[in-house]
Specification:
It contains 13 helices and 17 strands. It is α/β, with parallel strands linked by helices. The chain folds into 2 domains: 147 residues, Aspartate Aminotransferase, domain 1 (Alpha-Beta Complex), CATH 3.90.1150; 231 residues, 3-Layer(aba) Sandwich (Aspartate Aminotransferase, domain 2). A hairpin with a 4-residue loop joins strand 2 and strand 3. The structure holds pyridoxal-5'-phosphate. The site of pyridoxal-5'-phosphate has 15 residues, from helix 5.
């Protein structure tokens, strides 16, 4: 099918939640590259929203999918699953968690975290501790509970009544948090580095302060590491930059390298609140998803991709900061590792992104002023140099 036929079919049969998409359809990829139906090659600097951390069609991942698919795809968690146990062990051995539960997406992992936090206090004998504090401009998913947790009205409006008992406070403001904590608070849920709202990191003082407030008030600390986890920021988990450990954290996006899988991870004292029957999932933790997740996570760890994200992220920041002197429209570059937001002092982000697309670079935007860069962790200096020279050329036009 050519692009026109695909677009027509989409417009006739698919629910219109994406509006006018970027007019392109990709047929295959390799490493940093994607090819469209017309045979054009693109450089992927967005990784399908932080998902394709290993780039496209990495042989180890393709092999893990194909070999597992030929053996057994699904059998339900009524039975023991070797691949599920292996991936859970790999996550536990490399994180602060003691136990893991697998879901199929980030939103679903967060739903599990919310349920676990409430259940933990119910079982401890505090039936009225159900309130969860989250941050303004956060993003936690698209289900009914996770849009209530999300601190952005655009995802919530028209879906009222929202799931109750999610309170919002501004990021990096300990006083606001302290004033909001009450007898009904059971948890604080936050992204160590906010992604969807334009790459906004929490500060070290803030996150350490949050941990102290949680300890003092006996509240659970939940980190949503769906986007900032798994090497994206230059460490395996975002929280490792802060010297702060959560009681619960969630993963998804990069974990399957594009194959759907999410994970709810917790310390033993919290995880043990779940008894048989308290939570479940038909697809969650199936052999295919877990075998794929194992291939992805072990590659990130064994191939030094956290280190690559740290080094090349630093290089990327240097190159952008050097451009600042020449290009006045460039205001700020923020983030960590390869989770990067470039802020302009004029609303040029959308037009710039279209121009980059015309030059065969794939990126994202937030609002009108922020360009979002989330390249695969396998990126090289040469890839960055190529991008920066195109970016510089285009920015001179503004
Ligand atoms: C993408 C994202 C989610 C939602 O993940 P889905 O797989 O789309 O449900 C949740 N939290 C954060 C921080 C995210 O970036």
């Amino acid at each position: 099918m050519d692009l026109q036929e695909i677009m027509q079919k989409d417009q006739q049969y698919y629910m219109n939640t994406f509006g006018k998409r970027v007019p392109v359809c990709f047929t295959h990829g390799k490493g940093m590259s994607l090819w469209d139906t017309e045979g054009n090659e693109y450089q992927d600097f967005f990784s399908g929203i932080a998902v394709s951390a290993l780039g496209h069609s990495l042989p180890a991942v393709v092999k893990a999918i194909c070999e597992q698919a030929q053996k057994i795809i699904h059998c339900s968690s009524l039975y023991y699953i070797e691949q599920q146990a292996n991936l859970a062990e790999l996550i536990v051995r490399n994180s602060c968690a003691d136990r893991v539960f697998f879901a199929n997406s980030g939103a679903e992992a967060n739903e599990g975290a919310i349920k676990l936090a409430r259940l933990y206090y119910k079982k401890k004998g505090f039936p009225n501790r159900f309130e969860i504090i989250t941050l303004d401009k956060s993003f936690h998913g698209r289900t009914l509970a996770t849009i209530a947790a999300t601190g952005q009205e655009k995802y919530q409006k028209d879906y009222s009544p929202l799931t109750p008992k999610f309170l919002k406070v501004p990021i990096n403001n300990l006083e606001a948090l302290e004033n909001t904590i009450c007898d009904e608070t059971c948890a604080i849920l936050l992204e160590p580095i906010q992604g969807e709202s334009g790459v906004n990191p929490t500060t070290i003082e803030y996150l350490r302060g949050v941990r102290e407030l949680c300890d003092k008030n006996e509240i659970l600390l939940i980190f949503d590491e769906v986007q900032c986890g798994l090497g994206r920021t230059g460490k395996l988990f975002g929280y490792q930059h802060y010297g702060v450990e959560p009681d619960i954290f969630t993963l998804a996006k990069a974990l399957g390298g594009g194959f759907p899988i999410g994970a709810l991870c917790a310390k033993e004292y919290v995880a043990s609140a779940f008894s048989p029957g308290d939570h479940g999932s038909t697809f969650g933790g199936n052999p295919l998803a877990c075998n794929t997740g194992y291939a992805v996570l072990s590659t990130i760890i064994n191939d030094g991709l956290c280190e690559n994200a740290a080094t090349l992220g630093e290089y990327f920041f240097e190159r952008i900061n050097a451009l600042k002197e020449k290009i006045p429209v460039l205001e700020e570059v923020r983030g960590k590792g390869l989770m990067i937001g470039i802020q302009f002092n004029k609303p040029i982000a959308k037009e710039l992104n279209q121009m980059l697309f015309a030059r065969k670079y794939l990126l994202g935007t937030v609002g009108d002023n922020i360009l979002r860069v989330l390249p695969p962790l396998i990126i090289t200096r040469k890839d960055i140099d190529g991008f920066i020279s195109v970016l510089e050329e285009l920015l001179c036009e503004f």
